[in-house]
Amino acid sequence: MKIAREGVPFVLIAAALAVGAIWLVAATRRWPFGVLAVVVLLVALWVPYFFRDPERTGPRGEQYVIAPADGLIVMITEVEEPAFMQGKAMRISTFMNIFNVHVNRYPVSGTVKYTQYNPGKFLNAAAEKASLENEQMSVGIQTAGGCRVLVRQIAGLIARRIANYARLEGAAVQGERMGIIRFGSRVDVFVPLTARITVKVGDRPVAGTTVLAELVP
User: Fold this and answer.
1) Is this prediction's pTM over 0.70?
2) Comparing C-alpha atoms, which of 159, 70, 168 is closest to residue 115?
């Protein structure tokens, strides 16, 4: 199983704690330490699972907007997005729990024309006001056909670190890795009002595979 590079330190720390817990049980032979060791071992097994980074394939093409995140679609709504979309857009919000893959991917291919990091709060990422108040990283991509798509990583209650690899004027490649958010979060995708949405609230998209919308030339 491939591990995201941001997760390697956590995996090593968890493994070291598990070894220490086993040593403590062997040295003391006391049952409270045995219970502690079981808990530590379960966490040590979960940490690499959380940071797993599977390869993904699926539909590709300029007309498709591919899911940037695994999770649950919690909102699809028309919003005002002046920063990059420069007007009204459709926002598709995907909430990731601690059991989802947290590696995020570019939904379209093109050139990165906008990046903006905003520090903020750590409210429940599924809530509407998280879009405005939580820590977030936005990446605006312009396709070869001139279409604009915005991706926004939003930290949540547990998440405390957003990693993003996008660089201004750099290339965005559909389905390739864009970043990661640690320990529960949300990713919003903004598409033009003319786009045909192909998912609904309650759907469970797969990053790099599920088509969220189709762009209309």
Assistant:
1) yes
2) 168
